[in-house]
Design a protein that fits this description.
Layout: H1 11-21, H2 26-45, E1 51-52, E2 56-57
Antiparallel strand pairs: 1-2
Helix pairs in contact: 1-2
Length: about 60
């Protein structure tokens, strides 16, 4: 075990999946994902390393 599984998931599919597993609306999930994306992009543009413990390093 311990293999790496990679999947391509587009933003709409991610929004749908999270909304279906939570009490959040698709609109609210999309807003959270957009804010997350903005913050990660900002840090990368500043040449900072982004590490999401439990998720990975990008």
């Amino acid at each position: 075990m311990g293999g790496v599984i990679m999947a391509n998931v587009n933003k709409d599919a991610l929004v749908d999946a999270i909304a279906s597993k939570t009490d959040l609306s698709k609109k609210d999930v999309a807003a959270v994902i957009a804010a997350f994306e903005e913050k990660v992009t900002e840090e990368i543009r500043q040449e900072n390393k982004v590490t999401l413990t439990g998720f990975g390093t990008f």
